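Let us work through a complete example step by step.
Step 1: write down the sequence.
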Amino acid sequence: MCSVTGAYAASMIVTAAAGAVSTVASVQQSKTQKKVAEFQENVARNNAEMANRHADNIERQADQRRMALRRNMLQQQGTARAEYASQGVVLGSGVVLDYEADIANAYDLDLRNLNYDVASQAWQVRVEGTGQMNQSKLHAVEAKAYKQKMIYTLLGSQLSTGSAMASQTSSYAQYRSSMG
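Step 2: predict the structure and record it as tokens.
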């Protein structure tokens, strides 16, 4: 009888220890998963901010490209006027006026293309930033879920260990009552 009682006590100790180790391991895993999700949330949020800054930079750089286009157009017009004037052609009429209109039309077309390209590039980068921000929010939800998982794991492990110990106690009690 003494050896059965000792075996029962040893079994209870092993069950309690196994339950504790399992609980600690599960909780640690959940904590790690939560921290990873929080880290990914921060990375995604930072990527979204960087994407928005990049879009702003694209738009600011376009301002300089617009000014360069305008300077180029004015330089072409000035060079053409000087050339025509040196040849004695009357400025502001006929071929000269048509040529200046062609330069202005080319400038207008180049400006429209630049504006379209800039708007398209900035939009694509902002969409990427929106995707990153959505990813950040998803990781925040994951982190919250891992925190809840940690709580449920802790409760579940304790209940499972308690149930195993109760089952062993019941078996031991049945054994003792059958022995008299």
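Step 3: interpret the result. The chain has two helices and no strands.
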